[in-house]
Amino acid sequence: MPIGASGKRGSMFESDPVCVSKISQHPAEMFDFFTLFTTNEAQKRNYEVMSATSVRPEVMADPEIQKDPIMKVFGAVMADAGPLVLPANFRETEYFKTIDERLQLVWLGEETVAAMIDALQDEAQAILDKPSLAG
Hints:
By secondary structure, the chain is mainly alpha-helical. It has helices spanning 27-37, 40-50, 57-60, 69-80, 92-107, 113-128.
């Protein structure tokens, strides 16, 4: 991530979501699986088998994993990233969809970056002002 005007590096997150839905027939077993899969040992094995980045900063900082030039880059980014900031009203799906739609207009050459930012500020704020989905 680039260093911004504040002198700090931006934050990012990557998601390969795997979750237990409310219709799951085995929620306890799935929770146990996720608990096992996210251990230090399991995350190291996940790297060995799939060359995948880890959800655990200490795994990314492991000297063996840091020998991989790609993991060295991702490990540094992970160590320097700020906290993940999401809308407090739990409307992140709507929020990111709106941002994505606006960015597509820029990529297609149908809107300038300045116009996109101006429009997006109002649209994003309208989403943030909505009531929480948490009930």
